[in-house]
Structure formats: structure tokens, C-alpha cells
Amino acid sequence: MKSLFLTGSALAGLALGSTSALAADASGVLTNYANIAQAKYQDSLSTAQTLQAAVEALIAAPSAEALTAARQAWLAARVPYQQSEVFRFGNAIVDEWEGKVNAWPLDEGLIDYTDASYGGATNENALAALNVVANPAFELSGKTIDTSEITPVLLAETLHEADGVEANVATGYHAIEFLLWGQDLNGTNPGAGQRSWTDYAAGETCSNGNCDRRGAYLKAATDLLVADLDWMAAQWSDTGAARSTLLADESAGISAMLTGMGSLSYGEQAGERMRLGLMLNDPEEEHDCFSDNTHNSHYYDGLGVQNVYLGEYVRVNGALVSGPSLSDLVAAADADLDSELRRKLSTTMQALGRIKTTAEAGFSYDQMLEQGNAAGEALIMGGVNGLVDQTRSIERVVKVLDLDGLAFEGSDSLDNPNAVFQ
After folding, report:
1. Contact, 391 vs 319, CB < 8 A?
2. Structure confidence at residue 421 as a pLDDT band (50, 70, 90)
3. Integer CA distances (angstroms), 131 to 170, 186, 215, in order
4. Domain span at residue 266?
5. DSSP assignment string, 222-247
6. In CA terms, which of 84, 112, 162, 252 is 20 to 30 Å from 155?
7. Phi and psi torsions of 408, nearest 5°
8. CATH number, domain at 246?
9. What is the rounded distance in angstroms from the CA atom of residue 368 to the CA atom of residue 287?
């Protein structure tokens, strides 16, 4: 996707400009950024391990209470992870890995049973209704794939993006979300998925068949998520590859920070995750569509952008990680621009906060997406407009710090709306 704001080569081919506008403590800013990244991925790992324990408890002794506990653990795990998404785009090691843990949207029929309204295979995806849970073998590219044992290796190496189709999401948070909630069949009415705990029960209590295999899939996906997050947390350790790459070149490192902020703010969140769903009035475009948790995903994505600029992160245990910040660098070069971006980040968080609190009060994000719902459109567009506006100031920061050639992710929903309906 092309950038609305900045033209030029992608980050991998940057011809960086002068570093004269960078303050002397740029290395401290980058070290603090790496420390925050490490803390966020450590928190993502620890909350995923709590989810893992809840999933194991559900499988061992299925009950309504155990399913509720697993769902609550999943929701809690999303809080630190969503704040980590700002490390994408600028850090290649994160961008190349992210699809394993947060790929979206997905054709859930690949994994398990779906409602009749879901349909079957399509020209775009022959495996859209495969239902691995119900099938101990299937054909892929002329070969028989044995799925009698559902393992993390099967999910990661065979099923995920099978046939080269991105919608074949077999791993990560959203595969787990589907297995915990099931499909949300409420359209633009309130309510999340209503999967019953009996989908994991034994014997005659088992609903919808294959409860043992469903449990095996859920465990494999959760174990894989924990392993993937453990790996990424290690990349930001003192000797990790992500930290080493970031600190190797101060200009490239600061550019990576700004690329992540601008691309998440503009093309990814404002465009693909918010504006597109509103244009299509489609709850299937919700980021956390099975659990009706999208209002929180948007909020914590926005918070991730803000805390990178301010150089601070509040960990899940309440501890504060903080230090030299991008804000410090910008203030040294242009105090008015620093104040402007701080103000815009705060305005965006207020708008995303209104979406969050309104959804929690009973006006769900599904309902906000309904065609003709003026109040819902105003709430979502408040967030979109804030994200777009703050990106304009991030562009100015790039210029003030003399960093040339950055390109932020774009979105047809913002850059070429007519293409959305073609």
C-alpha cells in the first residue's frame, strides 16, 4: 500500500538524511524503546501463559465456569499484545513474525464447524470450510494431509496460510478466539459468539461432535502462541536480534519508531481496521469479531502509539517502564511541534476511549457499524479522524528530525475509497 503522507522507498531501502536534528541522547531513546518492547512482549507472554493454564483447565474439566475463565484470560492477554503492535512496520523482525500470532481476518470454517449461513468453499479459498476439527485427513495440492493428531507443528507448518491463502488463519489469538467464542451471528445487533462449554465435553454431553479434537486444536494453538511470544520477547533482550538491529544505527532506529507510529495510526488502524468496516457496515471487519472486544483492541493500539512517543509503558503488574523519549528529541528541535503531537495523541485517545466506554456501557461496536447509525458512525469517525490527524504531525516530526524517505502504510478506505466497492 502506498503512503498518503510521505513518498519514497520503504524502510529497508532508506537513504536517511542528516542526523543533525537528533539530540545527543538518541541512543537513550532507542534503548528505552527496546526496553518497552521487551516489557510488552514479556507481558504478552505471561498473560498468554495464564491463558494456557485456563485452556488446560477447560479441557481437563469442561464447564461453563472454565470456559468463562478461559475467555477472560484471552481478553486480558490482548491488553499488552495490542500495545505492542506499534513495533510492526518499522522493525522487520516483528513484521515478518506478526502473522503467526495476530493474522486477521480469517475463514473460520478452516478450523471448526460454522453456521449454514457461512457457506462453503469459494473460488478464492478451497479450504474455507475444511473443518479440520471434524476431519482427520484432507487433500492439499494433490497430497493427503494426516491430521489425526492436531499439533502445533501441524498448525504452523501445514494449515496456517494453507494453499497460500492469507485467510487460512490456523494460529494465533484469533484462531483461539474463535474456538472460545464461536461465530458471532448477531450481525449489527449486540452480542458476541455463544459457543457452549459442551463443545469441549466428553461422551454424550459433547455438542457438535469431535470435542476431543476441538480441545486438542485449542491446546495446540495456545501452546504455539506461548512459544511464539517467548521467542519474540527474547529478540528484545540485551543480546536479542531485534534490539541489536535497532541500536546499530541511530537514524535507522529512530526511523523505525516513527514508521511504526505512522503506519499503525494511518493505514492499519484508521484505514483497514476502522474506516473500512464502517464503509462496508460489516461486523465481519471487526478486529476481535468473535468476542466483541474490538473497542478494546482499538483503544490499546492507540495507546501503544502514544506510549512509544512519550517513552513510557505501564506493565500489567503496574510497574512503569520509562526513559528518554521521542518527545524529548522533538521538543529539543521544535517545542511547538512536540506540544502539537502530544495534544493530538491525547485527543485520539479520548476519541478511542469514548468508543471503549460506550461499548462497555452497552452500545456495542457491532451496533456502531450498522448502516444509518449516525451515533455509531460519529464515534468511529472520531477515532479515525484523530488517528489521521496525528499522523500528519508524525510526518512533520520526520522532517524536523531530518529523516528522509519514510513511507507509511496506506489504505484504500482512506486513499482511494471508490476502490473499496470495485
Report:
1. no
2. confident
3. 11, 22, 14
4. 11-106+169-421
5. HHHHHHHHHHHHHHTSTT-HHHHHHH
6. 84
7. -95, 150
8. 1.20.1420.20
9. 14
